[in-house]
Amino acid sequence: MKNRQPGKQKRRQILYILAVCLVGIMVAAPLWSQEKQELSVEELAKKSQNPVEPMISVPFQNNINFGYGPRNNTQNILNIQPVIPIPLTKELNLITRTIAPVINQPWPEQRFGLGDINISLFLSPAKPNNIASGNFIWGAGPILQFPSATSDILGAGKWAAGPAAVGVFMKGPWVVGALANNLWSYGGDSNRPTVNQFLTQPFINYNLPQGWFLSTSPIITANWVAKPASDVWTVPLGGGVGKVFRIGKQSFSGSVSYYYNVAKPEVGPDWTLRLALSFLFPL
Q1: DSSP the chain
Q2: Strand pairing partners for 247?
Q3: pLDDT tens, position by position, 177-224
Q4: Is the dihedral angle over the CA atoms 135, 91, 57, 161 positive or is it negative?
Q5: Domains of the chain, with CATH numbers?
């Protein structure tokens, strides 16, 4: 019975976190969805694709990783990713982007629970710059990672921080840009390996009529302390399709995409099916 109790407590923690997120959405939706002007689904699609757009959104991104580990198991990572803008001045916004991963880990032991939470804080101009008849907007600031994992297998056990930046160019139906950060550990469990990890997420979106869009947004990572050197990089290639839609007054963005890892660690997954649903609250 003693061995089962911690597992029950961790499951309760996960359910509590999910419940708080869902209740927050239901409570806040009637307030946030009172838009100053009704946006078309085409306009809303472009705004939702800008990581530093001053718009509240709550994406749920589910990554099903196939061929994970030496036995080719299936790993599942649900990222809960609320984005909340905070106006600091008329010229400057603070965009907070949180990622709380809920992980079903098949190897080296079966575990389910919360992973390490990270928060990016982007200072970003309130208005984009006009470049070549298009709009360019940027954001920069710190990224912070917390050892919130409910199991050693699900997280690094380290406090970590580093720089983060994003740039976005928007012209016509195109939304193109990239997000990047690097984390270094500065505290935590001294028996766990240090953290020195890079992430970049380039994205290209082509928007079609009626809120449909084509997109590619691979998450490329490098674990600089990984050994052997062949385990450093994870490089996926792929893309997918999505649509912005409304149910009543509530706006959503949904997408499905497929990525194949052309480079990966030995135990990394071969390919990923990504399913995403975002609650959108234009301000």
Answers
A1: -TTHHHHHHHHHHHHHHHHHHHHHHHHHHHHHT--SSPPPHHHHHHHHT-TT-S-EEEEEEEEEEEEETTTTEEEEEEEE--EEEEE-SSSEEEEEEEEEEEEEE-SSS-EEEE--EEEEEEEEESSPEEETTEEEEEEEEEEEEE---SSGGGS--EEEEEEEEEEEEEETTEEEEEEEEEEEEEEE-TTSPP-EEEEEEEEEEEE-GGGEEEEE---EEEETT-SSGGGSEEEEEEEEEEEEEEETTEEEEEEEEEEEEEE--TTS-SEEEEEEEEEEE--
A2: 250
A3: 999 999 999 999 999 999 999 999 999 999 999 999 999 999 999 999
A4: positive
A5: 4-281 (2.40.160.40)
Contact 197, 223 (CB under 8 A): yes
- Whose tokens are 């720089």? That residue is 163
Exposure string of 51-90, with b = 16+ CB inside 10 Å and e = fewer, is bbbbbbbbbbbebbbebbbeeebebbbbbbbbbebeeeee
Q: Which amino acid is at 17?
A: I
- pLDDT tens sequence across 30-74: 554 444 457 899 999 999 999 999 999 999 999 999 999 999 999
Residue 244 · residue 37 · CB < 8 Å: no
